[in-house]
Amino acid sequence: MRALFLTHNFPRFADDPVGSFVLRLAVGLKGQGIDVSVVAPAAPDAPARESIEGIGVTRFRYAPRRLETLAYTGTMGAQVRQSVGGKVAMAGYLALGYRAAMRAMAESPVDVIHAHWWFPGGLIARAIRLRTGIPYIVTSHGSDIRLASSVPGAVSLLKTVARNAVAVTTVSGWLASEVHRMDPETTAVVGPMPVAPDLFYAGERGDRSRVLFVGKLTEQKGLQHLLRAMPLMKQRVTVDVVGAGRVDDAAIRGLASALGVADRITWHPLLSQRELANLYRVASVHVVPAINEGLGLTAVESLLCETPVVAFDSGGLPDIVIPEKTGLLVQPGDAIALAAALDRIVGDASLRDRMGKEGRRFALDKFGPDAVARKYGDLLKASVSKGRG
């Protein structure tokens, strides 16, 4: 059986963290008897065709180089909403992504398409189904649901994609409820993405006062909440911030200075997965102060490294952070509660150790590649059995 993945996020090189969960799923599906190929947008220095861990990848150009900035940056929605260039690039993406997928299927026929994110991949999958009858499933990862909620007319497009799909999945229960809220005729299956337990594992702990934040430095990811909590803490912590430079971060750095905590922060760029795993292992706690996060796979990676998580009780994070077991949840935006939760974990070694061990067991059971691949393998096979048209 052959499946084609359509995605705007896929690793551009070995150990690239961007879209790594899509690669993990593709590799895992081999064990379910499903051969996966991938069509993804072009990226600087990435070859037009290659194989990564045995997965064939075709990358397509969709605009002049200066406009090919929609993918891999985490700013696709903002670019399309805010600039003419972004709209032009998206039109090219949809047209040339469709053409690239059709060419790939002409060279190597497939039985089913798996579109990751309903926009733009789901729109392309729907167009292909209308022409060829090849069934597709679509998975929402979070940013596409936020897009549907904020852009006029986007919900009607989501409905069109969802109702033409053989199945709709989301990576968290919260996202499934959001899809159903927008389109009551659609019932989404919860299917999280897999992680790599052989890469993320426990190690020797570093300084107990070391805290970790991972993510784009946008308001939604919530670093500002952690910065405001730091002066309220009894424990004096240092913070590793991973993700600097992906968006304009002058304002958040200015906030750190204004709060008097800048000297306790180390700013890291986007790191490889191996480099990131090392930071998980030495941190006492990983903080995810995001609002309406689709799932939060960095939290899962942290648990695999036996590092507990403190997060906001928002979005899909409660699927990962089980209070008193794998970490602590606090009311979104509450800096005082966030400071108290961090103080509690940083100051209690036995609590950290217990949560760390429970966290790894939980993450392996729910997000291990074999378990996730079985679920998606069954879903893809069932989609084919329903036939075309």
Features:
eight-stranded mixed sheet, Rossmann fold, alpha/beta, 389 residues, 2 domains, single chain, six-stranded parallel sheet, globular
Q: Can you walk me through this structure?
A:
- This protein has 389 residues and is α/β, with parallel strands linked by helices.
- The chain has two domains: 2-194 and 368-385, 3-Layer(aba) Sandwich (Rossmann fold); 210-367, Glycogen Phosphorylase B (Rossmann fold), CATH 3.40.50.2000.
- 43% of the residues lie in helices and 16% in strands.
- The chain is built from 14 helices and 14 strands.
- It has helices at residues 20-30, 76-82, 84-107, 118-132, 143-150, 154-164, 173-182, 223-229, 250-258, 273-282, 297-304, 335-346, 349-367, 369-385, and strands at residues 2-6, 35-41, 49-52, 55-60, 112-116, 136-140, 167-170, 189-190, 210-214, 238-242, 265-268, 285-288, 309-312, 327-330.
- The strands form two sheets. Strands 3-4-2-1-5-6-7-8 form an eight-stranded mixed sheet, with helices on both faces.
- Helix 4 packs across helix 6.
- The radius of gyration is 21 Å and the shape is globular.
- The chain starts with a strand and ends with a helix.
| Spatial shape | globular
Side by side, the strands of the main sheet go: 3-4-2-1-5-6-7-8
Q: How many β-strand runs?
A: 14
Predict the CATH topology of the largest domain.
Answer: Rossmann fold
Total number of domains: 2
The helical percent reads 40-55%
Q: What structural class is derived from the secondary structure elements?
A: alpha/beta
Q: Mind sketching the topology for me?
A:
Layout lengths: L1 E5 L13 H11 L4 E7 L7 E4 L2 E6 L15 H7 L1 H24 L4 E5 L1 H15 L3 E5 L2 H8 L3 H11 L2 E4 L2 H10 L6 E2 L19 E5 L8 H7 L8 E5 L7 H9 L6 E4 L4 H10 L2 E4 L8 H8 L4 E4 L14 E4 L4 H12 L2 H19 L1 H17 L4
Helix pairs in contact: 1-14, 2-3, 3-4, 4-6, 5-6, 8-12, 11-13, 13-14
